Amino acid sequence: MNLFDQLKRPFPVGKIHWRVGATNKDKTSGIALAYMDARDVMHRLDVVAGEMNWQVRYPLADSGLLICEIGLYIDGNWIWKANGAGDTQVEADKGKCSDAFKRAAVLWGIGRYL
């Protein structure tokens, strides 16, 4: 199994978390949203790429959007993929970092099936 197939592997069911997304007007029903914990994503990168073969950068865009860049060391080169996130309703700075990290990880295939 190649690196990308290993990164894309589904997480164990117990590692998937759920929250309610958009709700109807009287809040009696809503959309269930699946998500993963950033620590589980880090563990996946450690196991698949190797602890010394991935890194993260967090540049801030002019708009205030936090960008997360995840680099993997592949065949002697650093390959980067990036995505961003804005403030969240819970712990704005921490949430922004975690969301940007997980969104960048999806570009590597991690949790994309969610």
Describe the structure.
The chain contains three helices and five strands. 30% of the residues lie in helices and 32% in strands. The strands form two sheets. A three-stranded antiparallel sheet has the order 3-4-5. The chain has a two-stranded antiparallel ribbon with strand order 1-2. The chain has 114 residues and is of the alpha+beta class. 18% of the residues are buried. The mean pLDDT is 91.
Quick take:
By secondary structure, the protein is α+β, with helices and mostly antiparallel strands.
Search tags:
two-stranded antiparallel sheet, 32% strand, 114 residues, 3-stranded antiparallel beta sheet, alpha+beta
From the N-terminal CA to the C-terminal CA, the straight-line distance is: 21 Å
> What is the molecular shape?
flat
| Category from helices, strands and their pairing | alpha+beta
Number of distinct beta strands = 5
Spatial strand arrangement across the major sheet: 3-4-5
Q: What proportion of the residues is helical, as a percent range?
A: 25-40%
> Mean pLDDT, rounded to whole units?
91
Write down the secondary-structure element order.
HEEHEEEH
- Count of separate DSSP helical elements: 3
How would a crystallographer describe the biggest sheet?
A: 3 strands, antiparallel
Radius of gyration: 15 Å
Poorly predicted residue ranges: none
Strand content: 25-35%
Helices, strands, pairings?
Blueprint: H1 3-8, E1 16-23, E2 30-36, H2 38-49, E3 54-57, E4 66-74, E5 77-85, H3 92-107
Antiparallel strand pairs: 1-2, 3-4, 4-5
